[in-house]
Design brief:
10 helices, Peroxisomal Thiolase, Chain A, domain 1, about 25% strand, globular, 4-stranded mixed β-sheet, alpha+beta, binds oxa(dethia)-CoA, 15 strands, about 325 residues
Length: about 325
Amino acid sequence: MIHSRITGTGSYLPGDPVDNTALIADKGLDSSDEWIVERTGIRTRHLAPAGVAASDLALVACRRALEAAGRQPNDIDLIVLATSTPDFVFPSTATILQDKLGITNGGAAFDLQAVCSGFIYALATADKFIRSGSHKRALVVGSEVFSRILDWQDRGTCVLFGDGAGAIVLEASETPGIHATALHADGRHRDILAVPGHVCGGQPIGDPLLRMDGQAVFKFAVKVLAEVAEEVIAAAGMTKEQIDWLIPHQANIRIMQSTAKKLHLPPEKVVVTVDRHGNTSAASIPLAFDEAVRSGQLRAGETALLEGVGGGFTWGAALVTL
Ligand code: UT7
């Protein structure tokens, strides 16, 4: 039986961290460091300079993941890239990344759009490709320049997000690395978190900036994340006690702590980057995963529960042994 396994991780954050006080001053916001830290846990975020696109951030993250896996770009036969802030309407950011990496082997490359659940969707997709035998070695990427779709007059959303990219190399293996994945969506809730604009003749039409009903999203997230955690643990035939780490989507420390509590995991077993990265949407889980590996928190043989929730609404989880 073919399994898939993570063999390398990498990530990239553009520029210097911007702290709450500097952001508030720069954008002229009626807000405070105290409010942002207390309600969200966010202290700093990174913002990509003008002209830097999602594929640029992904390129650095992927090079680092390839190096960690001991692989060359042309060893990769599949790229699944999750983003809500692609370089263009088309071509896909995945094919731009493929070109920038110098991959010329004709492998498959495509974007996937599930907003903040994007990396979980991408991981589940690549896992299924590999387990089917059709592909052997994938780059699974989350890359976002969310700063481009923020309304800098809206203090309720613009302080929450940041830019960045994370990537893993996922390879066919005889032993399981990805034990189980679970994906869900419920389009009835699509209006509570949306960028309700579209592109026509190359021009944005309508409202091309992020709009969110924060409280509705908060309640929905707490509920479905607890449910999907239980589901993926059961699907893997495992128990809560076998989970060493929780690596959740990094949106709000209070949501993350609520999930950890339901899993009986102490706070020190939750990988937290939201304080330094803000919410980087599809990039937040692979960024946190890479940081956990490189800092020596998550070690070979340990098991992590990854989970995310985002616009659509979409949500999902994956149970992974490194
Ligand atoms: O990645 C996708 C998933 N997204 C999320 O998970 C986000 C989920 N939601 C949240 O994290 C929280 O709902 C927020 C952090 C967005 C907001 O926190 P909250 O505790 O739900 O605050 P609220 O929206 O109820 O607002 C409370 C007050 C309001 O003022 P009034 O009406 O009580 O006078 C807001 O206008 O806080 C005000 N407020 C702010 N004050 C200072 C909203 N944003 C700010 C701000 N600074 N940046």
